């Protein structure tokens, strides 16, 4: 994993082992991720017009951030 400020490039390697033919293939898959804090994500969601944005701690091994879109607000006004 290589960091460049708030982004990181992750390469995962998959080794495919065909035991019947004894052929081994390796596949490399790369992705670029934008790393941000839960508070930054909350702020970005509010800027994007999400409603009822909140952070849930102690539900999972890491914080969960939830919010509703205009669609959820219009069709489910009593949710959460």
Q: Could you tell me how far the N terminus lies from the C terminus, measured between alpha carbons in angstroms?
A: 38 Å
Computed over alpha carbons, the radius of gyration is: 20 Å
Strand content bin? over 45%
User: In total, how many domains does the architecture comprise?
Assistant: 2
Overall mean pLDDT stands at 85
SSE series? EEEHEEH
**Strand ordering within the main sheet:** 1-2-3
Structural class, judged by helices and strands? alpha+beta
Count every helix, treating DSSP H or I runs of 4 or more residues as helices: 2
Report the biggest beta sheet as strand number plus sense, adding barrel if it closes.
Answer: 3 strands, antiparallel
What is the share of helical residues? 10-25%
Spans of at least 5 consecutive residues whose pLDDT stays below 50 are: none
């Amino acid at each position: 994993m290589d960091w460049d400020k708030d982004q990181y490039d992750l390469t995962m390697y998959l080794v495919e082992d065909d035991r019947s033919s004894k052929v081994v293939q390796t596949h490399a898959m790369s992705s670029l991720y934008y790393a941000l804090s839960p508070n930054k994500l909350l702020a970005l969601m509010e800027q994007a017009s999400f409603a009822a944005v909140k952070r849930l701690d102690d539900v999972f091994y890491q914080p969960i951030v939830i919010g509703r879109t205009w669609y959820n607000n219009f069709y489910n006004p009593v949710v959460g």
